[in-house]
Specification:
Layout (H helix, E strand, L loop, with lengths): L3 E7 L7 H19 L3 E7 L3 H11 L3 E4 L13 H9 L8 H8 L1 H10 L7 E2 L12 E6 L13 E3 L3 H7 L7 E5 L4 E8 L6 E2 L3 E5 L12 H5 L4 H4 L1 E4 L7 H18 L4 E8 L5 E8 L8 H9 L3 H13 L1
Parallel strand pairs: 1-2, 1-3
Antiparallel strand pairs: 4-7, 5-6, 5-7, 8-9, 8-10, 8-12, 10-11, 12-13
Helix pairs in contact: 1-11, 2-3
Length: 323
């Protein structure tokens, strides 16, 4: 008799943006993989009616839940609610548990957790600490909760000497935005997948910025990820070709990825984003739990580079959920 896997995913907004609607592609891809792995597949959407979500999941009573819920209502503050529901119904589910999901969905909490385990991040500041910014420094204002680079583009980058910009952002909500040192350097998006021998760091992906004009901030913002008509989208490239001179850097990145996985209690599949300083020091700028599984996403690009087919990835994610 086939085991039942329930795919849980977020109900879309009435007019979803591309970053939100992307979950439907993931649902379709995971469905095909689960069917090929001989599972019976059922579905349930989650929104802010958590009572309905709990009763619906309980009624279907699957052996395991594949959690594809991202944000609810495309609001980052609600990212962890699906995990709260799944924690409550006590059915094994894929991806990272509730506590790491809550910590990593809030960028300030994530920064504190990383620093507590000895992992370096760019310096961060609350909006009440603008007086601490160096005039010669470069900074970026970030949303505390949002994912998918929502509200994040080159217009968020500013100089510490730009008093007019600082005056504007100081009036923003302290509960929704913070300031981070902007690191001028290389960017890496590194995927990690569960294996029976421990977390496996997949081939290291560097994001490169092609033909960017002088002075244009090199940033993987919303346009570069989702707006296929933009300059940023067409001029950023993923490469897995690290040079021989990058041997020490590669080892540093792998060590940090495994440290984050082991000491923060991560599971299933994760993507960690880095900026590397001119002195080759990697700084973590984001931890993405349950990253996008669409074919064009960074996690699946790294999986393919490793030689893994989609069913293998899904099987390993399921294995970590039920072990």
């Amino acid at each position: 008799m086939k085991k039942t896997v329930l795919i849980l995913y977020n109900k879309l907004s009435k007019i979803p943006k591309d970053d939100e609607a992307d979950v439907i592609e993931q649902v379709n891809l995971v469905t095909r993989a689960l069917e090929n792995l001989n599972y019976d597949v059922k579905y349930h959407q989650i929104d802010l009616n958590l009572k309905n979500a709990i009763s619906g999941i309980t009624k279907l009573n699957p052996e395991i839940i594949f959690n594809l819920a991202e944000t609810i209502g495309n609001k980052g503050e609600f990212t962890f609610l699906a995990n709260s529901v799944l924690n409550f119904v006590r059915i094994p589910y894929t991806g990272s548990p509730l506590i790491p999901m809550f910590q990593c969905s809030n960028k300030i909490l994530a920064k504190k957790e990383l620093n507590a385990i000895g992992v370096r991040t760019p310096k961060g500041f609350t909006l009440d600490e603008c007086h601490k910014l160096r005039k010669a420094g470069k900074y970026i204002i970030k949303p505390i909760w949002e994912e998918g680079s929502l509200e994040l583009d080159e217009d968020c980058v500013f100089k510490g000497s730009d008093s007019e910009f600082i005056s504007r952002i100081s009036r923003k909500s302290r509960q929704h935005y913070f300031i981070e040192e902007f690191i001028e350097g290389r960017e890496f998006n590194i995927s990690i997948l569960y294996s029976a021998d421990g977390p496996e760091v997949l081939p290291l992906a560097e994001m490169t910025f092609q033909q960017y004009p002088a002075g244009k901030p090199k940033i993987m913002g919303y346009k570069s990820k989702w707006d296929d008509k933009s300059f940023e989208y067409s001029h950023t490239r993923r490469t897995f070709r690290l040079g021989k001179e990058d041997g020490q850097l590669k080892e540093k990145l792998i060590v940090i990825c495994k440290k984050c996985w082991n000491e923060m209690g991560l599971k299933g599949y994760v993507r960690i984003d880095f900026r590397v300083t001119k002195k080759s020091e990697p700084l973590v700028i984001d931890i993405n739990l349950n990253p996008c599984l669409s074919e064009s996403g960074g996690f699946m690009a790294a999986s393919k580079k490793k030689g893994l087919v989609f069913e293998e990835v899904i099987a390993r994610i399921l294995e970590d959920a039920i072990r």
